[in-house]
Fold each of these.
Amino acid sequence: MLGRDLKLKPEDAETIIGTGVKVEGTFTAFGDVIVKGQLTGSLSTENNLSLRSSGKVEANIRAKNASIGGELKGNLTVDEKIELAATAKVSGDIHCRVLAIEEGAVLNGRCKVGGAGPKDTLKEKKKEDKVEEK
Amino acid sequence: MYFYIYDSFLKEKKYAKVVSKIETRLASLGIAGKKHQLSILRSVDEMVKEILKKESPTIIVIGSDQTFCQAALPMANTNAVLGFIPTQPNSLMANLLGLPVNEYACDVVSARRIERINFGKINGQRFFSSLEFDVNKAELIADNKYQIISKRIKTVKVINLDLLQFQTTSLETDWKRLASNPKDEYLEVLMGTPGKIFWFLKRKEKKDSLFFVKKLKVKSKKSNQEILIKVDREKTVKTPVLIEATKEDLRVIVGKERLI
């Protein structure tokens, strides 16, 4: 019974980049991603990202929601909510609909928060492009 | 029609009682069929290929996990159905497929609850369960997009149908799920350090990372070195290799308590 409940589709799978691993390149996932180790390049997921306190990322990130507790050098574009924990160190621009920053978090970069969020902004841009083409 | 492949070790006297109980149960359920006995002279592969010439057969392997995995390989993309009656108490496949051991598995076979299970491929050759290799000297490139570099990891397990752990028996609940999903056209790449027992000291296994890939290229960091990859806990293949998830599948009889 336990196993049946834990059955997972790739969309909601939980990719884990552990402390003993470094990933280099274009990393794309469908499900939730947990980063405890290192990643350089780019990271995108259709679901949630959790960068733990031991994690170090040098990449532009795209996700649905993001919880940052580690070190990030790169831009962070999130459709919904970004949570910066007290241990977070972010050097890069942030774009999201909702931003929550805990006391102690370090953020060096520009913030674009609220409104439609990046997902809808992108959709609007595409629509505008199409209209211009016509 | 049912075809039963008996593992070679079942010829031994100590298994006579188990075999007799299984046969009695099969007969009472009305699913008795043709018996094929494995021996040194007759391989599983040959035997399955011969049975597959018949129209949509149901092949039931009685015996070990290894024989069951071997029997599955030639059955990809056929109309045949594969079943399993495990006779070993620690059977991993029994655990994954939700099968009881010995004569109790006959009821599950009779119920014919069927799931489609995909295969994986290593250098074009099918594998059914998992691959395992030492990662220290290996270079891994996933989906032609990113490289996975190991820093403190010892072992990599590429999983099609297996537990998401290095141990084959006990189940730990700290991981989000227990078994792979062999129906999603992805392979799970588990990285960590397997547990070990030195005399009376026990080292617990450490699971570090988990990736979902469609393709994984593995080669040695040094051109003059080869890495041995254990396929389905039996044969070995040398690097460089290309490991892929495939759409090729097989119909397998499973139980209610399955993990997949």
Note: Chain B touches chain A at residues 145-153, 173, 176-179, 181, 184, 186, 191-192, 207-212, 257-260 (CB under 8 Å).
Amino acid sequence: MWIYEKKLQYPAWVEGCDLQIAKLLFAQYGGSDSELSAGLRYLAQRYNMPIPEAKAVLTDIGTEELAHWEIIGTLIYKIINRATPEELKAAGMGPNYVEHGRDVYPADAAGVPWTAAYIQAIEDPIANLHEDLAAEEKARTTYEHLINSTRDRGVIDTLSFLREREVVHFQRFGETLRLVQEYMEHTKCMR
Amino acid sequence: MDIGRERLELLKEIMAIDFSLVELNLYLDTHPLDQRAQRLQNEYVTICKDLKEKYEEDYAPLTHVYASECPWGWIEEPWPWEINYEMGGI
């Protein structure tokens, strides 16, 4: 189960009201390589992991991704919250305003709704973990593209923290893959 | 929404220590025999518990596992997405 804690993992800082970056931040909120995809992917993949380390890593990183999803949602909310419909329209967020108001609906930067088709869970732990390693790298690159797209120091600071988390998760998934491979080699020898 | 300097500083301290615990947790998942990391984890757990106890006593609940006076304190604003975290600080 999960328990909600009334705090963010990292302070979501916004300096100004860069509506353009708010629109682009949806890439990490409801896009293919978003925090939402990451969280649900890992939590869906954990059930048949062969070793306790892997079950723990997928549960814990999956949970952390939901905290990151909340940080991205907060950044978007803080930027669009005080914008007028005209300002949103001028920033290319007119369709988003018409369909969702200022709520933070899980869609990507182009407005395409999030879909579970972005993710996979296929029982094979080696295949699953390779998808996870790729997902972390793609998310890291997405953060770099976002950081290159704004001058808001608060947003850049927050995104830099989230980018670093992708690097750490990639490292932990790599270690998990090695542990699973060692386990599989070992059980093959025992047969 | 501003929550006042002292409360914000304590909240950020809790966020920082909780983050250290997330990081140690992930590390220990793949290094369960690392005694040094385990010691650090155990040390931070105590600090974290004390800070959260202080926050809930002085300000507001962090989770619903909270003995409240009437009215129910959990619903009080601000929620995490409404807080003004301010630039800089700890």
Note: The mean pLDDT of chain A is 97.
